[in-house]
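Re-run requested by the PI after the first attempt was lost when the workstation crashed. Everything re-entered from the original request form. Ligand of interest: MRU.
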Amino acid sequence: MNLTLENLPRTIDVGIDGGEAVVVLVDQRRLPGELVYLRTSSWRTLVDAVKTLAVRGAPAIGVAGAAAVMLAAFEYAAEEDFDQLLADASRAIAAARPTAVNLAWGVDRARETASEARQARETPQETAEALCRLTEALIAEDEAVNRRIGAHGAELLRGLAKSGENARPLNILTHCNAGSLATAFYGTALGVIYAAAQEGLINRVYADETRPVNQGARLTVWELAQAGVPVTLQCDNMAASLMEQSLVDAVVVGADRIAANGDAANKIGTLGLAVLAHFYDVPFYVAAPTSTIDCTMKSGAEIPIEERDGTEVLPDPIPGVAVRNPAFDVTPHRLITAIVTEEGVWEPVC
Ligand code: MRU
């Protein structure tokens, strides 16, 4: 397979242009129709981009969180109450989406950098510049972490592909988009697939549509096609029949928050796949950076689940009809074969 990762866009970038801080991100609301970039110097616009899923995916919103704190620092650099304004903005940024712990993680990293700079008596402008350097470093760090997750995950898939009488390239099922678009670059679950594809271990990826926002149908299939990985789109309710026909060798998904006991929150519908995989004896892998592990939460029951607007499910509301729209569900650790991080397989011990 000839991988063409160079066709994938950089999800998010930051810089200083003519003295003004700028964040540039792929506007994922417009994919797959058009690849357009949103460019902003306003932290509020960036928060809105997070809320409306222009930028989405746990690691990508972690970087976006740090970038938003940077923009706020530049915006308030001339204000007397800089520290208070930055603290207030940071709180609002961290609250933009509740489930993915990476957002709060990115904001916390930025807050630490800002407070170290202020303790070292740096000016607000110097603090803002330090935050720009931090965000650049987080972007590079995220790609490096994802490539390490990919290498560890490929090792597991190599074991599957080479074992048994029918040693052959694998069919992988994935849900939502835990790809390059969900990170600074390369992806977590799709990073595992890219690393395995490079070794000839992948036959085909089946991508769930992922109702109601269709990250699978809009983003994952586009991304895999760009990268040169054979992909088949299916509706969410087709996974059981695919497994019944023995067409899935492994499920690989990402995560938004992993509790200390290994329970993992991910896009709504992931739990159903895990139950199916258990029934059909298909390995179920979660690929995520260690920044997605939240040891303050003992189990998945404590993970806050984002409830999004019902119009995502039913665009034209019908009087008298209530709509549920939890954006995530929690897969209990007993249904997860392995959690793959940049440090290798993570055992729930923290
Ligand atoms: O609502 P989204 O699109 O931000 O949800 C994204 C997911 O659930 C991903 O699977 C998860 O963040 C892992 S991304 C590497």
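Saved to the shared folder this time. The pocket of MRU is lined by residues 53, 56-59, 100, 176, 178, 182-183, 188, 215, 254-256, 266-267, 327 (CB under 6 Å).
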